[in-house]
Amino acid sequence: LQGLPGGGLNIGFEAVDRHATTALRDRTALRFVSRSLPAIDLSFVELTRQTNRFANVLRGLGVGQGDRLFVLAGRIPELYVAVLGALKNGTVVTPMFSAFGPEPIATRINLGAGQVLVTTDALYKRKVRSMREQMPTLRHVLLVAEDGGITHEPGTLDLATLMHDASDEFSTVATQPDDPALLHFTSGTTGTPKGALHVHGAVVTHFATGRYALDLHPEDRFWCTADPGWVTGTSYGIIAPLLHGVTSLIYREEFDAERWYSLLEQERISVWYTAPTAIRMLMKSGLALARRHSYPALRFVASVGEPLNPEAVWWGKEALGLPIHDNWWQTETGGIMIANTPAFDIKPGSMGRPLPGIEAFIVEHLEAEGEPPRVRIIDAPDVEGELALKAGWPSMFRGYLNNEARYRKCFDGDLYLTGDLARVDADGYFWFVGRADDVIKSAGHLIGPFEVESVLMEHPAVAEAGVIGKPDPVVGEVVKAFVSLKDGHAPDEVLRMDILAHARKRLGAAVAPKEIAFLPVLPRTRSGKIMRRLLKARELGLPEGDTSTLEGGA
Question: Beta 515-518 vs 476-485: how paired, if at all?
Answer without folding.
Answer: parallel
